[in-house]
Amino acid sequence: MKKIWISMLLALVLILGACSGDKEDAATSGSVDDGEAQNENGAIDHGVDENNIGFGLTDDTIEEAQNIPPAEKEEIMQMFETYIDAFNDKDIERFSNLLSENTESFDKEEERVYMEKNFKEFDFERTASNVTIVKYSEKEAQVFSDLETSMKQLSTGLETDSTGRQVTLLTKEDGQWKVASVHYIGDNK
């Protein structure tokens, strides 16, 4: 009889021990991410720490950087306008040429393929307002903008409109400003 009680007690201890595992494991158990490493890079921020951005995307006050040489400011603003125009015109060559070769945020060729697909499937109209250079150095500029985007799926005619705020991180490569990453947050409606 003693052996039965000891066996039952031992089984109970093992069952309770197995049930009292780490709560974090229980929270993710049964999820689509089981067995996969957590992705540390977000879809919007590409894993960039917001502390390295000139301000938080949810700030209400947008202030222009004070140390921008006038010629650089004009070049940066022109580049940003070309970036928006290339997107709206679905000009994949011009759009791709504006992307940085030296970024950890995206693979330039993968981005090109992705945008070619989107340009074939959708009509876009992106309008930027409140365009402001919020952080500047000789090698990097951060351009804030409020964005309104209208999108129409060509196959279905479905149309959507969205608004949000974006910081476009530009880097200077071979004397030209290039898009190194994009940080976007949509407005809640």
Automatic annotation (TrEMBL):
Signal sequence, start to end: 1-20
Keywords assigned: Signal
Residues of the Calcium/calmodulin-dependent protein kinase II association-domain domain: 72-183
Disordered: region residues: 25-50
InterPro entries reported for this sequence: Ca/CaM-dep_prot_kinase-assoc, NTF2-like_dom_sf
Pfam families, per database record: CaMKII_AD
Protein name: YybH family protein
The species this protein was found in: Sporosarcina siberiensis
